[in-house]
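Predict structure. Input: Chitinase, 217 residues.
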Amino acid sequence: MMSINRKFFFDRVRTHLYKNGLDQDAVDGHSAILDRWEKDIPKDDDRWLAYMLATAYHETGGRMQPVEENLNYSAKRLLEVFPGRFKDAAEAARYAGKPEKIANRVYADRLGNGDEASGEGWRYRGRGLVQITGKTNYEKFGIAESPDDALQTDGALTMLFDGMIEGRYTGKSLGDFFDGPREEWVEARRIVNGYDRADDIARYAKHYYSAISYTTG
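Output follows.
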């Protein structure tokens, strides 16, 4: 049986992505992703694994544990991050520092959510190793009635793997960008979120790819 050489993997990851140290939570998070890969799809393209690791690294700020979206914005940041959702600085100021109120405003009437009063913006805020947002996306994974499942390791791993391999987020899948000679590290960001931070995530993914080596035993 071929398994990923964990010592080599973590040595490379520490060198290239965690120069200030790799804490136990991050080790555990990486290990959980590697374990799921080896258990379910060890014969698939290693570039898929590298890009999933890079996506989780980006989406969790390197923690590699399921996280919840931080919506504690100032008025200034609300106008920068959610242009069009607030008519002016005075209106943004009434929402600033109130995460639940912010979520219900900025995610209202989109992504399958109801209006601001429905509370669905907050109920279906971003969670997971990949930040799924909106009722429609939670329904895709069968957790609309229990959205906090996205914060549990098993649920978060399923959303990372199935979402990116099957193309559940945007209709684009890992196989669309990594298949035989086809290798599109920057374009692959379209699997989750357009081109947001695409160059950075491509760089992380290449570091992860260089860390994947196998040993027999």
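The chain has a mean pLDDT of 94.
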